[in-house]
From TrEMBL:
Cellular component aspect of the GO annotation: endoplasmic reticulum membrane
Residue span(s) of domain Rab-GAP TBC: 79-226
Species this protein is from: Aspergillus calidoustus
Biased composition (Polar residues): 1-15
Annotated segments matching region Disordered: 1-34
A Gene Ontology molecular function term of the record: GTPase activator activity
UniProt-listed InterPro entries: Rab-GAP-TBC_dom (IPR000195), Rab-GAP_TBC_sf (IPR035969), TBC20/Gyp8-like (IPR045913)
GO biological process: endoplasmic reticulum to Golgi vesicle-mediated transport
Name the UniProt record assigns to this protein: Rab-GAP TBC domain-containing protein
Keywords for this protein: GTPase activation, Membrane, Transmembrane, Transmembrane helix
Compositionally biased region (Basic and acidic residues): 16-34
Length: 369
């Protein structure tokens, strides 16, 4: 039977309705997918911000992965960062497990990170161990007291090179250089190319040159330091504790070498070099061409530890004596009097002394009356 016009119209209307419904379904599905994608994008960004590696792995595995290239770049950098941190942690743990006497200090990881980037994980462990024992040993003792002694060289170098600047800085203690010298500048210099260049220099010279480098940095800022008002010591310390930006490394390296040649450690004033112990890395690693063994370095570490304990006990004893000086003084007088009394009796002088005392009393009373 032939289709009637009404049936054809009905079929056409149904087809249009089906198309519209399909379009609505597609549009609805597209909106749902878009909403899911937006939700996933937010989840990826949040995981990157919080460095949630497990969540990033889950999101990367799910349908669509990281969805967009810009998100992939962020996520991959986070995963790469996590991988580097894992390697860094492994190297540090290996060294500290092999040499448990070494004390970790804040900023040590900055040094290890430089070696890890240059040498890779397989070679950096041994390099870090050697660096720790042969160049950083003074900083990995149970106390930072040896590191503070290193800092005392800075004002001595400045005094030798620039008397006027030395006078201006005389009221500021050199703790401003602790962070940089402790970490071989790895904590304070952010550019990898700069710190890698600086490591080339520092590791080719004896350890004390790191101190000369900071003195060179201070001297390079002479003009701005002298312009700081005398009544602003906090500003002076702040300036001294921050490395200049930009950092002219080549000029500073040349200046440090010149300072070292012009004012060698032995010539520095106030006997600061003599105060550095003989077992310090500043003195045991002076000849960079001489090969040193790890075993010898470990023995030096224990020597330094014993010496450090003796110095600490000495300071505690002096502090105790000073804080109880009045009581100790009274006891000392009493002990002295008691000892003298015993000595007088043993010598048989007590009767003579009493006789003289009686005569003196009688004469004194006679004059009064």
């Amino acid at each position: 039977m032939a289709d009637t016009p009404s049936s054809h119209q009905a079929e056409t209307a149904f087809s249009e309705s089906e198309k519209n419904l399909t379009a609505e379904v597609v549009e609805h599905g597209s909106k749902e997918q878009s909403a899911r994608n937006d939700e996933k994008i937010n989840a990826i960004r949040l995981a990157c911000d919080t460095r949630d590696i497990d969540t990033l792995i889950t999101l990367a595995t799910s349908e669509g992965g990281f969805l967009q290239d810009d998100l992939r770049q962020i996520a991959c950098s986070e995963q790469e960062l996590s991988s580097k941190k894992t390697k860094l942690s492994r190297v540090i743990k290996r060294v500290l497990r092999n040499y448990p006497m070494l004390c970790y200090f804040q900023g040590f990881h900055d040094i290890v990170q430089v070696l890890l980037l240059v040498l890779g994980e397989s070679q950096s462990t041994q390099a870090v161990a050697q660096l720790s024992l042969l160049r950083l040993r003074d900083y990995m003792l149970p106390s930072l007291a040896p590191a503070v002694k290193h800092l005392q060289l800075i004002p001595a170098i400045i005094a030798s090179a620039d008397a006027d600047l030395s006078i201006r800085l005389s009221g500021t203690r050199p703790f401003f250089a602790l962070s940089a010298t402790l970490t071989l500048y790895a904590h304070d210099i952010q550019e990898y190319s700069d710190i890698a260049r600086l490591f080339d220099f520092l590791l080719a010279w004896e350890p004390v040159v790191s101190i000369y480098l900071y003195a060179a940095i201070v001297l390079s800022r002479r003009k701005e330091l002298l312009e700081i008002p005398l009544d602003e010591p906090e500003m002076l310390h702040f300036k001294l504790s921050k490395l200049p930006i930009p950092l002219d490394l080549e000029t500073l390296i040349s200046r440090a070498v010149q300072l070292f040649h012009d004012h060698p450690p032995e010539s520095l004033p106030a006997g600061v070099w003599r105060k550095i112990p003989g077992c310090s890395v500043l003195k045991t690693s002076r000849d960079v061409s001489r090969k040193q063994s790890i075993k010898a370095a470990v023995e030096l570490f224990y020597q330094q530890t014993h010496q450090l304990r003796r110095e600490e006990n000495k300071q505690k004893f002096i502090g105790f004596i000073w804080s109880h000086r009045r009581t100790i003084g009274s006891v000392a007088v009493a002990v002295f009097i008691g000892a003298m009394s015993i000595w007088i009796r043993k010598r048989g002088l007590d009767n003579s002394i009493l006789s003289y005392a009686d005569r003196f009393r009688a004469a004194f009373q006679g004059r009064l009356f």
